[in-house]
Amino acid sequence: MALLMLVCLGAPVCATADERSRVIVTTDGEADDKASMVRFLLTCNEFDVEAIVNSSSEFHWQGGRGWNALQPVDWVRDYIGLYAKVYANLKKHSPLYPEPDSLLARWRVGNVGGVGEDSARTPGAELIARILLDDSDPRPVWVQAWGGCNTLSRALRIIEEEHPDRMGEVAARTRLFLIWEQDDTYQRYIRPHWEKFNITTIISDQFDCMAYIWPKVLPADVKPYFEAPWMTANIIDGHGPLCAAYENKDGAFNGEGDTPAFLHSVPNGLRSMECPAYGGWGGRYEHVRAGVWMDIPPAGGYSHPDGKWGFSNSWSKMMERWTEPGRVAVRTAYFKPIWRWMKDVQNDFAARADWCVADYADANHHPVVRLAGTPADITATPGQTVTLDASATTDPDGDRLAFRWWHYAEAGTYRGRAVEGGNEAKVSVVVPADARPGETIHFVCTVTDSGTPTLTRYARVVITVE
Ligand SMILES: [Ca+2]
Ligand SMILES: [Ca+2]
Questions:
Q1: pLDDT for 20
Q2: What average pLDDT does this structure show over 331-345?
C-alpha cells in the first residue's frame, strides 16, 4: 500500500485510499459530543484510534457556568466502559474493533481550564505531541477538533519548542478536521506558526446539519431517519447499553455536530481522504488558502472569512431561520454535500447498533466494492467511451446488490452537462466532446445490498481529460 502524493487543486494532499487512517479526537463533552461518541465507538473498527482527549471550547470550559460548564471529564471513560460491555459481540462482526483497554489507555485529559487555554502542559497535549512526533508509522494522522483547538495548539507548541527542526516532518503527516474554530487558538497560534507547512485542514460549517438544527434544514425525505420512530427502533431501544446511553431528544436524534469529523475518515470507497474537494460522508470543501479548506459558498456574494470560521460568522447560523422558499432552496443546497449521504450513514449506524446484540447471521454487513479491470484514476480523450466495471463486488452475507454509476458533477472540474451513468455493475460512459484537457469527471458507483438495514458502499473513478 504505497503512499501516493497527489496534487489537489494546488494544495498537497497525501492519498492513502486503501489504508486505515489514524485518528485523534479532542472533545469538549457537549451533549452532542456524547451522541457522536456512541457512533464513533461503533465505527472505530474502520480506523485506528490514536487518542481521545478532553478539551475545552468557547462553549464549555472548566469554571464555565450553567450550560457553559465543562461536564466531568470522566464521561469518556464511562462511554468506553459501555463499549466494553458490547465489545465481545461487536467482535463477531469485525475483528478490527479495538480492545476497550487499549482505548482507555489512549484517553487523556487535555487543556480544559478556560476558553482557548493552551498554556498548561497537559497529559492530553503531551500525548498528541508524542503521536505526531512518532515517525514509525508512515500513515497520516487526522486530528479532529470536536471542541476548541486549544489542546492541539498546546501539543504543536510542545513540538515547536522542543523539536523545531521536525515541524515540517510533523506537518507532513498531520491532517486537521475542525468543527468550526471553537476558540481563538487556531488564529492565535496554529495559523501563524504552522499554516506555512500546508497541513491539510478542513474547517467545517456544513457539519451543522447534523447538529441541533437538523429539523429545520434537512430535506423532507431525509428527516425520517432522524425522527423518533426510526431512531428509537433502530438505535436506542434493544441494542445494548452503549446505544441505550445515546443522547437523544424524546427518542429522536438530538445532535451529532462532531460526527462529520470522523465520518470523513471512514474508508467507504468515496476516497474522501484523498482531497477535501472530492466530497464524502464528512462533506465537501473548497480550497481557501495554504492547506485550508472551507465550505462551498451558498451563492454568489459570499466569501470565506479572512480570520476565524466559527459560530459568529457561520453561514449555517445565518441561514438557520430562513423560511422563504427561494432561500430555503439555497440553504438546502448548501448542506447537500452532507445530507446526500445521510440515509446510507444512518443505515450504517443501525447495522452497527445491531452488531452490539446480534449474531453474525442475524445482522447485515457491508458490501465489498471492487473494481474489475477499471483503474480508480483514468485518463481519456473527449468523445472516448470508457468502461466502468464494479462487477467484482461481493457481499459477505450473500445479499443481492443494486448498482448505480452516477456522475458526481460538483466533485470534478468539468462544468458541462451531466454525463449519463447507469444502473448496472458495468456501464459505458462517454467523455463529453466539450470536455477540455485537464478537467476531471468523477463517477461514483453506489452499491446497496438487500440486507436489513440496507448497507451501502461505493467506488469512485476519476476521469481526467487529456
Ligand atoms: Ca463539541
Ligand atoms: Ca450485506
A1: 87
A2: 98
The ligand minimizing its distance to the Cα of 447 is 2
Domain total in the chain: 2
Last residue of a domain, one of 265, 295, 325: 295
Residue 71 is part of which domain span?
4-295
If you measure from the C-alpha of residue 32 to the centroid of ligand 1, how many angstroms do you get, rounded to a whole number?
Answer: 7
The answer to the question of residue 318 being in a domain is no
Q: How far is the CA of 247 from the centre of ligand 1 (A)?
A: 13
Domain boundary among 266, 295, 324: 295
Nearest to 281, CA basis, from 346, 226, 344, 338: 338
| Residues 279 and 386 both lie in one domain | no
Q: How far is the CA of 362 from the centre of ligand 2 (A)?
A: 11
Global confidence as pTM: 0.96
Whether residue 431 is found in the same domain as residue 288: no
Omega before 453 within 30 of 0, i.e. cis: yes
279 and 399 co-located in one domain: no
Instruction: Give the per-residue pLDDT at 4.
Output: 38
- Tell how far the Cα of 166 is from the centroid of ligand 1, in angstroms: 30
Residue with grid cell 443522547, as numbered in its chain: 247
What does the pLDDT read at residue 256?
Answer: 98
Under 8 Å between Cβ of 150 and 183: yes
| Nearest ligand to the CA atom of 255 | 1
Residues paired with residue 4 on neighbouring β-strands, in sequence order: 15
- Residue that the C-alpha cell 497527489 belongs to: 6
Write the pLDDT tens digit of every residue in 217-235.
999 999 999 999 999 999 9
